[in-house]
Design a protein that fits this description.
The protein is mainly beta and about 400 residues long. Helix content is about 5%, strand content about 30%. A 5-stranded antiparallel sheet has the order 8-11-16-13-14, with no helix packed on it. It is elongated, with a radius of gyration of 56 Å. The protein starts with a helix and ends in a 28-residue tail after the last strand.
Length: about 400
C-alpha cells in the first residue's frame, strides 16, 4: 500500500472515532486534605510532696479528782441482828413547809444516798416491810452526813377468832304473870360511869405532843449519836398500840422535852397516855409481867434533863392496856422539863408506848415547901478572965 493511503486511512478512522457518542468522564474526587492533628500539649506535672504525718507527743496532764457532791448517806440495818435491810425506803420531808424533798430506796447492802439537798432541817422517815417506821429530825448543813438507821422488826397481831355460835336450847314456855297493880316497880338505877382522867387546864405547852411530827422536840436522855432519837409505832404496824392519830412513841428508857416560857410560881400538870409491854417473845398483844418494871411521868421544876430533883407520879404498870397518868408540880423557874420514864433492869425486855402527852397549868394549887432556915448560933458571951480563975 502506498504510504499516502495509509495516512489517509488513519485520518478517516480518526474522524469516525471522533463523531461517536461522547463518553462521560466521572468527576475526579479531590481527596479531603488530611488534617494533621494538633500536637498534644504536654503538661508538665509538678510532683507535690505528701507531708509525712508527724506523731504528736502527748504530754500527760493529771486530771483533777472530782470532789464528791455532799449528800446524806444512810445505812439501814435490823436492830436485832445488825443485818442490812435491803429495799428500805427513805423519805425526807422539809420540816418547815411539810413537803417531800427527796425519796430513795436502799440497795442490797441497805445503803442509800440522798444528794442535792438544800441546807435546813428535815424529817427523815425510813420504812421497810416487816419493820416499824423510824422517824427522826435531820439538820443538813451542806456537808456530807452519815446516819445509821436501826429498824425494829414487827410481828403482825394474830387475827381475832370469830365467836363460835352456841346452839340455843328450846325456849321455855312462858308462865303467865299474875296480874299486877297499877303501881309499877321503878327500874334499877344505872351505874354511873367512872369520870375521865382529869387533864391539864389551858393550852398544851408541849410541841409535837402526839408524835405525829417524828421525834421533833423530843430526845432520849443519856444516849449519844443517832440512837438519841426516839422510835415510833404507826397504824400500819400495830393499830392497837396507837392511842390516837397515826403514831405513838415507844421507849426502852426515858424521853425528855424542855419547855421554856412557863410562869414561875404556878402549878403545872404533866399527863400522858401510856401502855406497857414486857415479854421475851415477839407477841405484843400479850405481856408476861415482870417485877420491878413500871412507868411514870416527871416534871423537873428547873428544866434539868436528868431525874435528880424531879417531881414524879406514882408507879404504874398498865400491861397491855392504855392508862392515863399525871403529876402536878409547883415551879419557880421559867424553864421546866417533861420526862416520860420507863424503869426496868437491863436484862428485861420491855417497851413503853406513849401518846397524847400534855403539859399546862393545873387546877390543883400546891403551896411550895419553904426552905429550912439556916441554923442560928447563940451570941457568944464576952470573955471574962476572972470567971476562969
Amino acid at each position: 500500500m502506498h504510504r499516502g493511503s495509509m495516512i489517509t486511512t488513519i485520518l478517516i478512522l480518526a474522524l469516525l472515532a471522533g463523531c461517536g457518542p461522547q463518553a462521560t468522564l466521572a468527576p475526579t474526587t479531590t481527596p479531603a486534605p488530611t488534617t494533621t492533628p494538633a500536637p498534644t500539649k504536654t503538661v508538665a506535672t509538678t510532683a507535690t510532696a505528701t507531708p509525712t504525718p508527724t506523731t504528736a507527743t502527748a504530754t500527760a496532764t493529771a486530771t483533777p479528782t472530782a470532789t464528791p457532791e455532799p449528800a446524806l448517806m444512810l445505812a439501814v440495818v435490823a436492830a436485832e441482828s445488825g443485818d442490812a435491810v435491803a429495799g428500805a425506803r427513805a423519805e425526807l420531808t422539809d420540816a418547815t413547809e411539810g413537803e417531800i424533798a427527796l425519796e430513795a430506796a436502799a440497795d442490797d447492802e441497805g445503803a442509800m444516798t440522798l444528794s442535792g439537798l438544800d441546807t435546813g432541817t428535815y424529817t427523815l422517815t425510813v420504812a421497810a416491810e416487816g419493820y416499824l417506821d423510824a422517824v427522826r429530825p435531820v439538820t443538813y448543813t451542806g456537808s456530807s452526813l452519815e446516819e445509821r438507821i436501826e429498824l425494829v422488826a414487827t410481828v403482825a397481831a394474830p387475827p381475832t377468832p370469830a365467836p363460835t355460835a352456841t346452839p340455843s336450847s328450846a325456849a321455855p314456855t312462858a308462865t303467865p304473870a299474875p296480874p299486877t297493880s297499877a303501881t309499877s316497880t321503878p327500874p334499877p338505877p344505872q351505874p354511873t360511869p367512872a369520870p375521865a382522867a382529869a387533864g391539864p387546864l389551858g393550852a398544851n405547852l408541849l410541841l409535837n405532843p402526839g408524835f405525829e411530827q417524828g421525834s421533833a422536840h423530843w430526845f432520849r436522855h443519856g444516849i449519844i449519836g443517832a440512837e438519841r432519837e426516839i422510835k415510833f409505832i404507826s397504824t400500819n404496824d400495830y393499830p392497837f398500840l396507837i392511842h390516837s392519830g397515826q403514831h405513838a412513841a415507844f421507849t426502852l428508857s426515858e424521853i425528855v422535852q424542855r419547855v421554856e416560857g412557863v410562869t414561875p410560881g404556878q402549878t403545872y400538870r404533866l399527863g400522858a397516855w401510856v401502855r406497857l409491854w414486857a415479854s421475851p417473845g415477839e407477841d405484843r398483844t400479850t405481856s408476861q409481867p415482870v417485877d420491878d418494871i413500871y412507868v411514870m411521868v416527871c416534871i423537873h421544876p428547873e428544866g434539868k434533863t436528868y431525874l435528880d430533883g424531879a417531881i414524879c407520879s406514882g408507879h404504874a404498870t398498865p400491861y397491855d392496856t392504855w392508862q392515863y397518868i399525871s403529876v402536878d408540880a409547883y415551879v419557880n423557874k421559867s424553864t421546866i422539863a417533861a420526862h416520860l420514864v420507863l424503869m426496868r433492869s437491863q436484862d428485861v425486855r420491855a417497851e413503853a408506848y406513849w401518846d397524847d402527852v400534855s403539859l399546862s397549868t393545873s387546877s390543883v394549887s400546891i403551896t411550895p415547901t419553904p426552905e429550912p432556915a439556916p441554923p442560928t448560933r447563940a451570941e457568944a458571951a464576952p470573955f471574962d478572965g476572972v470567971a476562969l480563975r
